[in-house]
Amino acid sequence: MKGIAIVGGGPSEHIPSLMQYKEEEITWIGADHGAITLVDDGISPDFAVGDFDSVTEEQLEKIKRCTKEFTKHPAEKDETDLEIAVRTALTLNPEVIYFFGVTGGRLDHALTNLQILAPLEAQGIKGVIIDKGNWVECKSPGHHEVQFDPGYPNISFIPFTPEVRGLTLEGFYYPLENAFVPWGSTLCVSNKLISEKGTFSFEHGILLLIKSRDVLSETRKS
C-alpha cells in the first residue's frame, strides 16, 4: 500500500515515536515544525513545506540540510501548513495518509484537521490520525472490518454527520443491529472487541472510527 505520513506542528508530547512507523514504502512530509520533529526523531523528510514561522533559524537550517525537497511558503496565506502538506501528498497518488502532530494543541486546528479526513475518504484515500492515545479514521457507508489493536483497545463510533442510520456492530462486547445514531449521541462510545476482529456496517451518514487508550491514567500510574 502506497503510504504518506504527514507530521504537523502539534505538541511533541502527543506524538508517538515515529520510528515505529518507518517503512520503506512510506513517504514522509513535515509541515512547518513537524519537519524538525521528524529530523529529531531520526527521519529525514522527503518533503518539508510551510511558512516555518514556528521554528528557529538554527532549526530551519537543520531542516534544509536533512530534507530532500524543501518549499517555504509565505506566512500570510489562505491555507494552513497542514493543508499544504496534504496537497503535496495528493500529487503522489497515495492510498493512505497517516497524520501525526495534528492533535493536542489548539482546538480550532484539531477540529479542522479532523475534517480533512472526510474529503480524503470521498476520494477513496484512507486517512488516519494517530497520537499517543488515539487512532482516528473516517468511514463512509458500507461494510467494514476492524482488527483488535492492543495499543488502542477501546473503540468508539462517532457520527460525523447529523445522523447515521443502519449501524450494525458484530464481534463487539456491545453489539448493535440497524441502529439510528444522531449527532451528539454517546451510544457508541467506548466499546471493545471480543475477538481478534469485528465488523461494522451502516447505510447512511459518515462515521469517525476512534480506537483509543487511557494515556492519562497510564501516566498517573507511572
Give me the secondary-structure topology:
Elements: E1 3-7, E2 26-31, H1 33-40, E3 47-50, H2 57-66, E4 69-72, H3 81-90, E5 96-100, H4 107-115, H5 117-122, E6 126-130, E7 134-139, E8 142-147, E9 154-159, E10 163-170, E11 176-182, E12 197-202, E13 207-212, H6 215-221
Parallel strand pairs: 1-2, 1-5, 2-3, 3-4, 5-6
Antiparallel strand pairs: 6-7, 7-13, 8-12, 9-13, 10-11, 10-12
- Shape, principal axes of CA atoms: elongated
- Total of helices: 6
Class from helix and strand fractions: alpha/beta
Low-confidence stretches: 217-222
Largest sheet: 9 strands, mixed
Order of helices and strands: EEHEHEHEHHEEEEEEEEH
The residue fraction in helices comes out at 10-25%
Q: How many beta-strand runs?
A: 13
Terminal-residue CA separation: 37 Å
Strand content: 25-35%
| Overall average residue pLDDT | 91
In short:
This protein has 222 residues and is α/β, with parallel strands linked by helices.
Keywords:
222 residues; alpha/beta; nine-stranded mixed beta sheet; four-stranded antiparallel beta sheet
